[in-house]
Write a structure and sequence with these properties.
GO terms for molecular function: MAP kinase tyrosine/serine/threonine phosphatase activity. This is Dual specificity phosphatase 16. About 45% of the residues lie in helices and about 15% in strands. The chain has about 140 residues and is α/β, with parallel strands linked by helices. Helix 1 runs parallel beside helix 6.
Length: about 140
């Protein structure tokens, strides 16, 4: 279904390079179901998953995306509208192919209204996902 372009795409190598450079703050959002997030996720990623109720509340502006981020985080998050936001779900391969009514499209749209730079991680197969998770965890654990 055609819709206004939401977010831009980022590949795994670019995300790792961005994190390793340390020049910009990056907010990682894992939009997979909680069970998948709990099984394996990138260190410091915040899990924001879809329920019909949450999707509706976001669509109706009954909850701010910044409030949802704070509520979903395991710790206080410093939110800065100039920081880069990278969303991943481990299955989306192209922003343009997302349905206008899917949760990921709603999430990306709300993030774009609050942050200057929003990206969807694309192109990670299972092996690349494991590599990315390890690389990010190595970097993020050093940065602590």
């Amino acid at each position: 279904m055609a819709h206004e372009m939401i977010g831009t795409q980022i590949v795994t190598e670019r995300l790792v390079a961005l994190l390793e450079s340390g020049t910009e703050k990056v907010l990682l959002i894992d939009s997979r179901p909680f069970v998948e997030y709990n099984t394996s996720h990138i260190l410091e990623a915040i899990n924001i998953n879809c329920s019909k109720l949450m999707k509706r509340r976001l669509q109706q502006d009954k909850v701010l995306i910044t409030e949802l981020i704070q509520h979903s985080a395991k710790h206080k998050v410093d939110i800065d509208c100039s920081q880069k936001v990278v969303v991943y779900d481990q299955s989306s391969q192209d922003v343009a192919s997302l349905s206008s009514d899917c949760f990921l499209t709603v999430l990306l749209g709300k993030l774009e209204k609050s942050f200057n730079s929003v990206h969807l991680l694309v192109g990670a197969d299972a092996a690349e996902w494991d590599w990315l998770r390890v690389k990010c965890q190595q970097y993020l654990s050093k940065a602590r």
